[in-house]
Amino acid sequence: MVVEVGYALAWDLEARAPWRPISAGEAQERDAAGLPYVVVYRAEGREVPLEVRLVSWRDHFVGLWVYDAEGRRTYHLDMRLLDDPERLFRRYSIGWYYPGPGMAEFDKECPKITVDLLPDGRGSRTEEMRGELGGSYTTTPTLRDDERWMDRPAFGDWPLLSAQVHGLTEPPVFEVGDAVEHGDGDAPATCWRPPRPAQAGPINELFRPGVRVTDGYHPEMTVVEPRRIGTLRVPSGLLAVSGPDISHGDGPHITLPVPPGEYVLEEAQVRHSYHCEWAGERVTRTDTTAVRLLVDEAPAASWELARRAGDDVRLFIQDQISGFDTDGATGCFADAGAWGPLLALYEKGLVRGDPEAAEHISDSMYILRTRDAASGGELVAFATTGDGTYPVWEGRDAGGGVVGVVVLVEGMPTLLPEKADT
User: 167 and 80, same structural domain?
Assistant: First the structure.
């Protein structure tokens, strides 16, 4: 089979078409410079591609989409270039198994298999069955080294990785297609891009009175003045943000350097009205959306996802989060320098009910405070709305300094348009 190879600056996933085709020579220059480009493989007489590959060495990323004859994406492979420049790690893959040509792409009833791998040997394989079989189950994959890694091909030497999927029994003959002149301008939002970790969203607005938001359940909620709930002493200059339901020897999940000092604790709050069936009337209530440790009164120019020790951003898949884990719907801000003593006091105060060990805080998402007498460091625990992993967001000023640390106690609300003046 003859397979035409084309290059472009990007691939439009919605249009299923290359954006700004380029020559092989320009693609090779971008490859050497680490800049992103795509490679499109087409068979003669077939409208949709066999596969499309996105290469972006600056992002340590090579991605692959495989298309079937109906133009549906059937397989996605996410590969990463890590410490060995000669090998690519097969980080993540999803395969969709459409039962017939009439099923739409990514239909919720389509069976699929997801494989999530890490270089240290950990991983999971999740098979989701649909229809009458239903259900899903997860196992630990047992893969050989050559199934986790592949040699990094030189530019122009890539094989057609989907050859077996398309039933090709003989090696294809590659022919490089002609390129056309391309213009300037940014790629449309529908173009495929290298994966990014989860992004912060409008955190500043959650502390700005008058902003209108929705959580998807309540159609309109209005941000009110942040509520200040005391302070936290961090004499060591190392802030811990963690779930307090871990053993003493594990240490806090996340630590962030801050100037030694005492910092204000706040709650971001929203007010909304709804019809209460029990009361038989419309009621108004105020809920907390986030907790914040205020390092500086200067507004945050940007928000970053705080990472745990050992996190490798090169391995993050699209919208992946990092944060603290909790099995008790609780997080905390604390002085990391006194973590062990503070955690012991927390357990005495909360679990054993020792009134000398902790101060209970009422009518707030902040629920308990402990203080280490030897160092002066403190721990203040706050409630979340459930178990799991909660991202920690660092707010930074224009110079890069930390001005605040925020944890959303639930999901990120969506901003509503500002009301027009009447």
Answer: yes
Residue 244 contacts residue 331 (beta carbons within 8 Å): yes
Strands 17-22 and 388-391: unpaired
Distance CA 80, CA 59 (A): 9
pLDDT in tens, 262-298: 999 999 999 998 878 777 788 888 999 999 999 998 8
- Counting other chains too, the contacts that 409-412 makes at CB distance below 8 Å and 24 or more residues apart are 409/288, 409/289, 409/290, 409/291, 409/365, 409/382, 409/383, 409/384, 409/385, 410/215, 410/289, 410/384, 410/385, 410/386, 411/215, 412/201, 412/202, 412/203
Let me know whether 163 and 261 are in one domain: no
Q: What angle do CA 41, 96, 164 make, to 5 degrees?
A: 45
Per-residue CA distances from 3 to 45, 47, 54, 87, 212 (Å): 10, 13, 18, 25, 53
What global pTM score does this model have?
Answer: 0.88
Q: What is the DSSP letter of 416?
A: P
Distance CA 15, CA 48 (A): 11
Alpha helices in 300-373 (DSSP H): 339-350
CA atoms within 13 A on the CB side of 139: 6
Same domain, 61 and 23: yes
Is residue 131 domain-shared with residue 248, that is, in the same domain? Answer: no
Q: Are 287 and 273 in contact (CB under 8 A)?
A: no
Of 196, 198, 197, 200, nearest in space to 405 by CA: 200
Say how many domains are in the chain: 2
Whole-angstrom distance, CA of residue 283 vs CA of residue 276: 6
Residues 6+ apart with CB under 8 A from 247: none
The arithmetic mean of pLDDT across residues 300-324, rounded, is 94
Backbone dihedral angles phi then psi of residue 251, each to the nearest 5 degrees: 75, 165
Query: What SS3 state is found at 350?
Result: helix
Q: Residues 124-176: pLDDT tens digits?
A: 999 998 766 678 899 999 999 999 999 999 999 999 999 999 998 888 999 99
Q: Are residues 158 and 223 in the same domain?
A: no
Helix/strand/coil percent split, the chain, to 5: 10, 45, 45
